[in-house]
Design goal:
- This protein is an all-beta fold.
- It has a single domain (about 25-460), classed as Pectate Lyase C-like (3 Solenoid), CATH 2.160.20.
- The protein is built from one helix and 40 strands.
- It has a twelve-stranded parallel β-sheet, with no helix packed on it. It has a twelve-stranded parallel β-sheet with strand order 6-9-12-15-18-21-25-28-31-34-37-38, with no helix packed on it. The protein has a ten-stranded parallel β-sheet with strand order 7-10-13-16-19-23-26-29-32-35, with no helix packed on it.
- Strand 39 (about 420) and strand 40 form a beta hairpin.
- The radius of gyration is 22 Å and the shape is globular.
Length: about 475
């Protein structure tokens, strides 16, 4: 259930043939190994017995049994107990490096930020232990049934602030690695039932070759993974890479400000050989390179993209590194089928696309089948003087403005006025009920926006990410300033 950490220092960039994300143009790059790996780390093992609550506090001077806040562990212990919750106080340089090669126990291990509202035992508790952040060294999680939860921060209207956990590292490394792509073959385990929530991640190294959350270990598969309320920003290669995965949900996250260069195309999200992937209620901003969300290799089926905002900040693509925007599309595939791309059943609906430098919003360049875009809102491309374009996607009920001319589609809407409360300030809430789209197909089931408002309420299907009225029980729209 444990073993020595084996790290391959030949860290390829996100687009190398060795299961990385991005798109190299020239030679494979070399990623430096961060000092957190060069240091000697004890691997965390997993005990099979059912556990309780434990306290972790940097600077604790008691017996370090984890029993209370006086006797708290000063870092996660060498053995984690299944069924237990580890409450982590404010602090820095916390370490999580789990390798569990033969663990079949399905009791959850929960690692949660301690707060005044939820901190386990009150013995020895001080509110000052829970009013800040717990900062982690880059994480390797080669085990299933684990929750890593910062407890606070993130989500719609609050994307960038208040995260209980942070992983900030300025070396060229992976900030949160599921499985161990650089370990020995038996460390590259398949992963299931993972939640990562309420966590900020950044490399502070643009352009750089850092990666955010990575699900790409060779020979491993990933199932039932939830990423929620994450703030993934200023990450050189890209915030998120998903390969050989199924049933992955990205919910209420902020992703953007990656980098690209002449010899290496960046990307915000890359998927390969993955199915049943959901992107919902998230905010994507200032992405550069190939595109925002899309596929490079292999069949990608049942991809659901809804309730999201895709935009560029007031600074535009110049806010990111080395590009005038994206090449293939906001939602994309590569432009040829030499790598076996086959997009099937992509559902792209109720998203807002705003202030884009180019009009190729959806570019599924390999035809696939049953790919649809419904009830999206497209507003302002190239300062209002560009044009909208789409490839291999059936469309219905989309709304277009600046310009309001668009390729033919069923029930398309030409906007005659700005539909937002305050677009210049990135308040992209709908300002009234005048704009409606056709209902979604009933077999898609009930739908809600990021604030819990039901689509179709009062007979109104508002195109774009947010339903009108914008927030139940609130008389005036919530201001969503661009995070």
């Amino acid at each position: 259930m444990g073993g020595p950490l084996s790290v391959d220092s030949r860290r390829g960039r996100m687009g190398s043939p060795n299961m990385n994300c991005g798109m190299p143009i020239a030679a494979r790059g070399i990623m430096k190994v961060g000092p957190w790996i060069r240091s000697v780390l004890a691997l965390l093992l997993i005990a099979p017995t059912f556990g309780a609550n434990y306290c972790v506090r940097q600077g604790a001077t008691g017996a370090q049994t984890g029993a209370d806040w006086v006797n708290a562990y000063t870092n996660l212990p060498a053995t984690l107990v299944r069924g237990s919750t580890y409450y982590v106080a404010d602090g820095t340089n916390y370490k999580l490096n789990i390798h569990s090669r033969a663990d079949s126990n399905t009791n959850m291990i929960t690692i949660r930020k301690a707060t005044e509202a939820d901190h386990g035992t009150s013995t020895g508790w001080n509110p000052a232990y829970g009013d800040g952040t717990a900062d982690w060294l880059p994480v390797v999680l080669a085990a299933s049934y684990v929750t890593f939860d910062g407890a606070t921060g993130g989500g719609a209207g609050n994307f960038k602030t208040g995260h209980g956990f942070r992983i900030i590292d300025n070396s060229d490394t992976i900030l949160f690695m599921l499985s161990d792509k650089y370990g020995a073959p038996n460390d590259r385990v398949s992963i299931t039932n993972i939640t990562v929530a309420h966590t900020e991640m950044s490399s502070l190294n643009i352009p750089g070759n850092c990666e955010g959350v990575n699900l790409t270990a060779s020979g491993a598969s990933f199932y039932s993974v939830t990423l929620s309320n994450l703030y993934l920003h200023d990450i050189g290669d890209g915030p998120l890479c998903i390969q050989h995965s199924r049933d992955v949900t990205i919910d209420g996250c902020w992703l953007g400000r990656n980098a690209t260069s002449p010899d290496h195309h960046g990307v915000v999200v890359r998927m390969d050989f993955s199915n049943f992937i959901t992107f919902r209620n998230s905010w994507f901003e200032d992405g550069v390179g190939t595109g925002f969300v899309g596929a490079y290799d292999g069949t990608g089926s049942d991809i659901y993209i809804y309730g999201n905002v895709f935009c560029y900040s007031a600074a535009g693509p110049a806010a990111a590194a080395g590009s005038a925007g994206y090449g293939n599309g906001v939602i994309y595939t590569l432009m040829n089928d030499t790598v076996g791309i086959n997009p099937v059943n992509w559902r792209i609906y109720h998203n807002t696309f705003y202030n884009l430098p180019a009009g190729n919003c959806i570019g599924l360049y390999v035809a696939g089948s049953n790919n649809v875009g419904y009830n999206n809102l497209f507003y302002r491309v190239n300062g209002g003087s560009g044009s909208w374009s789409f490839t291999n996607v059936s469309r219905k009920g989309d709304a277009f403005g600046q310009p309001n001319s668009f390729p033919s589609e069923t029930a398309g809407i030409a906007l005659t006025q700005d539909p937002f409360v305050n677009a210049a300030s990135f308040n992209l809430m709908p300002k009234d009920a005048s704009l409606t789209s056709p209902p979604l197909p009933p077999e898609w089931g009930p739908q809600k926006d990021a604030f819990g408002n039901s689509r179709g309420a009062g007979g109104i299907w508002t195109p774009g990410a947010y339903q009108f009225p914008p927030l139940a029980g609130v008389s005036s729209p919530l201001t969503l300033v661009s995070p």
